[in-house]
Amino acid sequence: MLVNCVAYQDGKKLADIPKEDIHLYLDRPGCFVWVAFKNATPQELAEMQKQFGLHELAVEDAGHGHQRPKLEEYGDSLFTVVHTVEAVDEELLVGEVSIFAGNNYVLSIRNRTREGFADVRARCEREPHLLRLGPGFVLYALIDTVVDRYFPVLENLEDELDAVERRIFSGAPARENIEGLYQLKQKLMTLKHAAGPLEETAAKLHGGRVPEVCVGTQDYFRDVYDHLVRINQSIDSLREMVTTATSVNLSLITLGENETTKRLAAYAALVAVPTMIAGVYGMNFEYMPELKWTLGYPLSLGAMIGIDGYLFYRFRKAKWL
Asked: CA-CA 20 to 30 A from 312: which of 36, 45, 208, 290?
C-alpha cells in the first residue's frame, strides 16, 4: 500500500505526485523523490524497481522480508534493513523497514509495524536546510527514529526487572519469578537482535569510506552510532542483571529448603526424646528395676518435658525454629 510519494527540491516540498510520474522528477537538479510503502506487494516492488533501477537482489530481500539488520551497497545506491521493536500487550512486536537510497530517491517499505513515519516526514519538512542534504539525511532521519523508539522499550524492560526483583525479595512463588526472568531475557534477546547489527551499520556510515549517498551527513550518523552503543551496553547490563537475579532467586530457594530441613530436623529431635524414653520403658522386661518404682512415671514425664524444653530453647536460639 502506497503511503506517500513526494518530490522535494533544494530542501523544499514540491508536491505529492503519483508514482507513475516519479521518473519525471529524477533528472531535475537538486531534486529527489521520497516514496513510502506499507506491506508493499510484489507488483508495487516491481514497479519501483523499474522506476529507480533497483538491484534485483535488494528487491528480492525486501519482498521476502525477515532479513537481518544490514547495509548493502549496489553501485551508487544503498539498501538498508532495520528492525522496529514495539511493546504490544506485554510482548515485543518486531517489524522490518527496508530502505533504498540513491542520489535522487528514497524508498522506504515497512512491514509488520504499527507505528508509521509520518512524524519523520514532518520533521524533515520543518528543517529544509537539513533536507537540502538530500536522501542521505532522510536515511538518517528514518534510522534515527527507529533507534529512538528502542529507548522506551528498554525502559519498560528495566521496570519489568525491578518488579521481578521486588517479587523475589517479597516471597513471591519461585516459579513465577523464574518465568518472569526468562520472559524478560527473551525480550532482551529480541531487542539485542535488532540493535546489535544496526550498530555495525551505523559505524559504516560515519567513519572510513562513506557511501556517496551519505556524504555530508556523517556527523548525524555518528550520533545514531552513539545511541546504539549506549543501547547495546544497557542491554548487556540488563542481561547480566537478569542472570544475577536468577542466581539470587535460586539461592533463596536453596536457603528456604535449608530452613525447612532445619525445622524438620529440630521437630524430629523433639519427638525423638520422648519416643526413646517411652520406648525404653515400654519393653516390659520382668526384671527392670524401675517398673515398681512409685516415682518412675512422673519422673519419666518430667525428663521428657525437661529435655525437650532444653532442646527447644537451643533450637530457638540457633533460629532453627
From this structure: 290
